[in-house]
Amino acid sequence: MTRGSRSRPGLALVIAVAAFPATGSDDPRSWLDRMGYALEYLNYEGTLVQVQGVDTAVMHVVHRVEDGVPTERITAMDEVGREIIRRVEDVTCILPDQQAVMVERRSDARQSTSPLREQFSGDVHFDDRYYRLAIASGGNLVGRETHVITVRPTDGYRYGYRLWLDYATAMPLKVQIAGDDGVVVEQLLFSDIRLPERIPASAVQPSLTIDSFTWRRSLPAPAVETDPAVASGAVVWSVATLPPGFSLRAVRSQRLETGEPPLDHLVYSDGVASVSVFVAAGVAIAEQGEGPSKMGAANAFTTTTNGYLVTAVGEVPVRTVETMARSVRLTVHPAVNPQP
After folding, report:
1. Of 211, 214, 205, nearest to 100 (Cα)?
2. What is the C-alpha to C-alpha distance for residues 188 and 165, in angstroms, rounded to an integer?
3. How many CB atoms lie within 10 A of CB 299?
4. How many Å apart are CA 90 and CA 88, to the nearest integer?
5. Please, which residues have CB within 8 angstroms of residue 340's CB and are 6 or more apart in sequence?
6. For residue 134, what are the β-bridge partners?
7. How far apart are the first and last CA of the chain?
8. What domains can you pick out in the chain, each with its CATH number?
9. Residue pair 15/3 in contact by the 8 Å Cβ criterion
């Protein structure tokens, strides 16, 4: 599910639409491709409910696309009413309980989007070796006919999914994430949704008066993002025991403010599931802990190695994050000698 080029949005949208099969297709992969497009490039507005165990979060989502460029506003429907506005360049977080507004560059705010887009939009690929796909009629949800795509993992290192997609647009109306025992660990569903042809720009502006709020703009910390195989002579972290199908997708090494410990961030993925591994130096012994933690579908496992604090976290079973966290090792790439 590759996003269209932002440099030529109009042409990209035409090509993308032309490439999609008709709605009558019974190929689950083509439906998943259309779903990725729908999440990114359709106009939609509705109430999204996220259920994680006994916890429920309700949010109002407005997703507007103009000339191929999406803007999104997410409002928590609780007593606080925090709001996130996601634009191409930045993400604005409005915190009415603190009378504050935080503006972050997009590179600093990868998670500041709706849970559905965080999980499924972008370059998502269900590998046949690790996922089995099936399609069936999904009945009627929020007044719309659906198909349901069932995604079953072939091992216990990743979750399964059931996705109810709108028959007309492939927009996901309901998603269940399940463990290898079939138990649902997280659920996302629209209790109401509109898919208008256009949404006014005013719909993605702040709904609160924030002129008197304190504004904070986050400056990016000095960071280096590299392929570890290129850093000759560098000492880098790696995961020695990877679950089948997972590979390294990104390395981010941050050297923060003076006095703060350095933080290394490795990202692994199987094309769908993603695991972040964080390695922090200079953590006091009293602060170091070990063991699992969980929130909804997300599992984390923390351990220590050579005095460093290692945490692996992702929407995968606990055995996946534990396997990866326990096998983090330091490796040294040989220095490249200059040619005489």
Report:
1. 214
2. 12
3. 23
4. 6
5. none
6. 150
7. 47
8. 9-217 (2.50.20.10), 223-332 (3.30.200.100)
9. no
DSSP-derived secondary structure for 227-260: -TTT-TT-EEEEESSPPTT-EEEEEEEE--STTS
247 near 267, Cβ under 8 Å?
A: no
pLDDT at 169 over 50: yes
Give the tens place of pLDDT for each residue, 30-68. 999 999 899 999 999 999 999 998 899 999 999 999 999
Is residue 153 within 8 A of residue 130, CB to CB? The reply is yes
Max mean pLDDT range (105-109, 182-186, 258-262, 335-339): 182-186
Integer Cα distance of 130 and 158 in angstroms:
8
Find all residues with CB under 8 Å of 283, minimum gap 6, and list them: 261, 308, 309
Return the percentage of the chain with pLDDT > 70, whole number. 77
Tracing tokens 């709706």 back to the chain, one arrives at 114
Tokens 């040989």: give the residue.
334
pTM: 0.81
Nearest residue to 87 (alpha-carbon basis) of 102, 101, 99, 70: 70
